[in-house]
Amino acid sequence: MNAIPSRVGDQSSSDLGHDPEEFPTCPGCGYLRRIAGRCPECGMSYEAMLSLQDRGLRRVRARWTVVWVLLALYLPQCWIFMMPGSWSVYRWSWIAYWPVMPGFLPGVVVGRTVLAVGPESPAGIASMAAVTAALGITAFMLARRSSTCRALVCTVLLGAGVAHAFVLHGLYSALVVVRNIERPLVSSGRPTGASAMNPIRQHWNDVWSTKAHAETSWYQDDPRVSMAIVDRLGIGVGDDVIDVGCGASHLADRLVQRGVRRLHLLDVSAAAIDQVRGRLDPVDSATEVHDHPIDVLELDPVPSVSLWHDRAVLHFLDDAAWRERYAVLAASAVRPGGHLVVGGFAPDGPMRCSDLEVRRAGADELADLFSPGFVPVSSEQELHETPWGAVQSFQWCVFRRVV
Fold first, then answer.
1. What's the rounded Cα separation, in Å, for the pair 387 and 62?
2. Is the model's pTM score more than 0.70?
3. Exposed/middle/buried for residue 393 (C-beta within 10 Å: 0-12, 13-18, 19+)
4. What would the DSSP string read from start to end of 20-63?
5. What is the rounded average pLDDT for all residues in the chain?
């Protein structure tokens, strides 16, 4: 194509005696016949057509630059989705960081040194988001200059992202080893920051915030089996009890009436504990009531108790490492001569509860899990009837702590 001079006045290149390349259609009005020079429909000059076409190409290039920059930023951080292993609560707490993961390490440094906050705090997450946004905007501004710049910037960004991902994966793996279990970054207390986005915690908070207690499948107006076991064990004044997965159960009310010395309420949902405290706070009692709105695997420090009671928490822990960790925590909490009471779905019980999969277990499997720290005392099965008439088979086991 011949070189096209700049416009002079209203003259097009064809008016000046040059032979411009034909356009298949007018980019201005869409005139469908081939055009050389001015458009006979709208009068757009050849140079104006070139300018309009160039602006369109620049917009297309800008969009593709955004795509390439985002791929270079986030593709290396997909390790959290692609690595082998269980989709644990701990893993999900890391996935919650994924939108700001490209700026994770620099954001942590900024948060620690400048803001004096941890990565789980809102300010810490905001610093990661700011670093991620700065990286993306800077990379886009440099990459949009030319195809060569785009290729160079994306290559550097991808390489740095891979190195960053290797460091993060190493940190993730090291924390798993140190903690001996996959659990969220926040170890205790009410959830904050990324841990608040934990899907298990969010699930149970949603359940207890949107459903009445009497509308849940596990509802009991009278915790008959639990209290029968409490009676047999002689639990009363002077005993310390932890109710793991207390929910809004009425067992807490019965234990306070019995006058136990300390009662620990543990549930991953703070909303559930709030319901129990709403009933207990007006009661005049000498019982000390302690709240633990956390996952049982986050229990730290572990209280010393004479009775560990669990109705339908252990069966949600379907990973072997989680169950082993649970057994270690129970052994750490229960004093020698104290007791562990566990109730969960029996081998012939339901396979799911509250839209979550469960691990059904019989008395022998539970005895193996808790040995040698506990020895079996008794076991029984209960046919629990839900508020809508369905029957669920529960396996109850009582164990004694041995030295």
1. 59
2. no
3. middle
4. PPPBSS-TTT---S-BSSS-TTT---HHHHHHHHHHHHHHHHHH
5. 82
